[in-house]
Design goal:
Elements lengths: L2 E5 L3 H11 L9 E5 L2 H9 L5 E5 L10 E3 L5 E3 L5 E4 L10 E4 L5 H9 L7 E4 L2 H9 L5 E4 L3 H4 L6 E5 H9 L3 E9 L5 H17 L5 H6 L6 H11 L2 H4 L2 H17 L11
Parallel strand pairs: 1-2, 1-3, 7-8, 7-9
Antiparallel strand pairs: 3-11, 4-11, 5-11, 6-9, 6-10
């Protein structure tokens, strides 16, 4: 019986899941793949639409009744956090309009924690590809960006007002938990799924050329060098195994969010 999988078309996800999706791992089931941005998968997972799904860590409090967090395949790391971009440096965000990529994304949760003392006047949820052009043309006073925007925002004439990854790491000493892989309870055996995904990650690292065509075909017109930067940054030791630091990072994020009244409380992972 085929399993449904939803991940983003970003290079880190296509790189990680190439072997699993293409049936290159012996003993794995057929996988029906859906590409969707994380704000879409967060909502779809709340409806239980996928067997395996990549979501924001910030969305976990609404999902863990029906899904189990897998210790592999996700996106955590250091030096890879969301950026707050503006047209001019040093802007005070109080009362301003800020474009964000989703209301249950980790990026937005971090932004809410960071901006508690300079709360914007208005938040607009905007498709990711529209955020930087919208800030550049004055539609928005600031934009919250993720992924490859770290490497390309200067092309839009924008400035990084804050690196929320640096803020998080300096405050907690922990990696930043961005994207999590969940397995649907009663449908997917979490131990088996963990093994499949770990094998897929290992195969991607062992033979990166095998996935290159698949990755580039779904990279939304990114230049090859930006694609490689993206993979190098977001596919790391935490992708293979969350480990204690990865789980502690998830706990720190969700406990702080619950204490601030931004999310429901969840049971700690460690």
């Amino acid at each position: 019986m085929a399993l449904s999988l939803a991940v983003s078309p970003c290079p880190n996800d296509t790189f990680v899941f190439h072997a699993l999706v293409h049936g290159l791992i012996p003993g794995t089931p057929e996988v029906n793949l859906t590409f969707a941005d994380v704000d879409v998968t967060n909502t779809a997972a709340e409806r239980g639409e996928f067997d395996l799904v990549k979501v924001s860590y910030a969305a976990l409090p609404w999902l863990l009744d029906d899904y189990e967090l897998l210790p592999t395949g996700g996106a955590l790391g250091r030096g890879c956090g969301p950026l707050v971009l503006t047209r001019e440096p040093g802007v005070d965000l109080a009362g301003k309009t800020v474009a964000v990529p989703g209301d249950r994304t980790t990026a937005y949760l971090l932004f809410r924690l960071w901006s508690a003392d300079q709360a914007p006047g208005r938040i607009e949820v905007v498709p990711f590809h529209q955020i930087m052009p919208g800030v550049a043309n004055g539609t928005y006073d600031a934009g919250l960006v993720i992924h490859e925007a770290r490497f390309t925002y200067q092309r839009h004439g924008l400035h990084a007002l804050a690196d929320l990854g640096e803020w998080w790491e300096s405050d907690t000493g922990l990696p930043i938990p961005l994207g999590a892989i969940l397995a649907k309870k009663g449908v997917v055996d979490p131990a088996e799924a963990t093994e499949w995904i770990r094998n897929s990650v290992s195969m991607a690292w062992a033979n990166p050329d095998a996935s290159r065509e698949f990755v580039l075909a779904n990279a939304q017109e990114m230049e090859p060098e930006v694609v490689q930067q993206h993979i190098d940054l977001y596919v790391n030791e935490f992708t293979l195994e969350l480990g204690r630091d990865g789980l502690a990072a998830a706990d720190a994020l969700l406990q702080r969010a619950a204490a601030a009244g931004l999310t429901p409380t969840v049971k700690p992972f460690v």
